[in-house]
Write a structure and sequence with these properties.
The structure holds 2 protein chains of 2 kinds.
Chain A lengths: L1 H14 L2 H14 L5 H12 L3 H10 L2 H4 L3 H10 L3 H8 L7 H13 L3 H14 L5 H15 L1
Helix pairs in contact in A: 1-2, 2-3, 3-4, 6-7, 6-8, 7-8, 8-9, 9-10
Chain B lengths: L6 H5 L5 H4 L1
The chains are: A mainly alpha, B mainly alpha.
Bound molecules: potassium ion.
């Protein structure tokens, strides 16, 4: 049933078996097409499997109320294909407090050697947000700072 | 050159199943 499908997805996600997660998400969508949860799971699995065209097609075909906000995911697809300007355009539509989006933007700024903007984003995130990645985020902040000096 | 960590990749995660159950 539904519970089994959801736990199958969660287990595959935890173990990093995205092929399995994709199959479980497809099964969930087939059996419970009104479940919004499965669409984002399917999208993340496709991205993890580098199925860029399929992922973009899924975003295009899935109504927003079923998929939820996918600004970060869309930008990440561009980013992984080296389309940095398209990724930044997408991220600029995301909220200032969307940590995933801001962190990806800072990372792209760093790659583009736009160290000043990367620095400001990390400074904002470190001041206004805290999670498991604080230590790594602080390291990135220092890396950017070093490039500014 | 200082080490720079790919945090964006960490953020690419599925929704939490606990929130759905
Ligand atoms: K990941």
């Amino acid at each position: 049933g539904l519970y089994q499908c959801l736990t199958d997805i969660a287990r595959a996600d935890t173990s990093g078996d995205y092929q399995k997660a994709l199959q479980a998400a497809n099964k969930l969508i087939r059996k419970h097409p009104k479940e919004t949860f499965a669409f984002k799971c399917k999208l993340v699995a496709q991205i993890q499997l580098s199925q860029w065209a399929d992922a973009l097609e899924l975003i295009r075909k899935t109504p927003a109320h079923q998929m939820g906000h996918v600004g970060f995911e869309k930008a990440y697809i561009h980013y992984r294909q080296g389309e940095l300007d398209e990724a930044v355009n997408e991220l600029n539509t995301c909220d200032k407090d969307d940590v995933k989006a801001q962190e990806l933007k800072a990372q792209i700024c760093y790659k583009q050697e736009n160290f000043q903007e990367a620095f400001e984003i990390y400074r904002y995130l470190l001041k206004n947000h805290s999670d498991d990645s604080d230590e790594l985020r602080r390291a990135n902040y220092l890396a950017v700072q070093a490039r500014l000096e | 050159k200082p080490i720079f960590f790919d945090l964006a990749n960490f953020h690419l995660s599925m929704p939490n199943v606990e929130d759905r159950l």
